[in-house]
Amino acid sequence: MALMQGFCVPLSADPGQRIEFRTSTTADSYTVTFLRFRNANPDEVDAEDIWNSRELTEEPLLDSFVLPGSNQPAHTPNESCLDWAIAFFFDVPGDWTSGMYAAKCADDEGALFYIFFIVNPNPDGRKNILVLSNTNTWNAYNDMGGYSRYETSTQSGAPGAASYNFTYYRPNASLFDPSVHDGEQSPLSPWRTPEYNVPYQS
Q1: Taking a C-beta distance cutoff of 8 angstroms, is the pair 43, 108 a contact?
Q2: Phi, psi of 51, deg, nearest 5
Q3: Exposed/middle/buried for 132, CB within 10 Å: 0-12, 13-18, 19+?
Q4: pLDDT of residue 109
């Protein structure tokens, strides 16, 4: 199976701002679908779903599109992946509300990867409460390249694994498991309902 990966710059953007996406896969092509994460219907969520952080649902927002695949060079966690070719750009629509979004990339060999990003609140519509996403924690636990911040060179077998330097410019497969949506943010999921519509920022 191909290894589908990707990341975006910046990780969070204002409505109207452009985001660039860089991807890597050994497959010939892949499909991109932009989506937003919302709470599932309470009538369809049980205690087991909540325990396993599966109370979120994907809401596709735009038509999917297909792009040719391209395999990019590997890097260690302290090396930026900005040498990867830009696969596509996206201008955040002005009417998108603040929240948690992703570009869902599925290649033609069955590999799947969520490129997570945050839409910041509109500067003209600030509210009294702001949810700050824990991006530093996400980066610290990211083991893309062989090790995370919490591993040592002995544990991972990778030279220099005790480094304190970790770039944000790399894929983060641990950030979004397709079967368990954003477990670390799940305690904040009540704020993602339309009646609250509390803004997010990173």
Answers
A1: no
A2: -60, -35
A3: exposed
A4: 86
Q: What are the phi and psi torsion angles at 161 (to 5°)? A: -70, -10
Interval 30-84: pLDDT, tens: 999 999 887 777 777 777 776 766 677 788 999 999 999 999 998 887 788 999 9
From residue 163, how far is each of 41, 80, 112, 193 by CA, in Å?
A: 43, 14, 29, 39
Pull the structure tokens for residue 12.
């969070």
The backbone torsions φ and ψ at residue 77, rounded to the nearest 5 degrees and listed phi first, read -60, -25
- CB-CB contact of 175 with 185 (8 Å): no
**Fold (CATH) for 5-196:** Immunoglobulin-like (2.60.40)
Rg (CA), the chain: 17
Tell me the C-alpha distance between 31 and 112, whole Å: 10
- Please tell me the predicted confidence (pLDDT) of residue 183: 47
pTM over 0.90: no
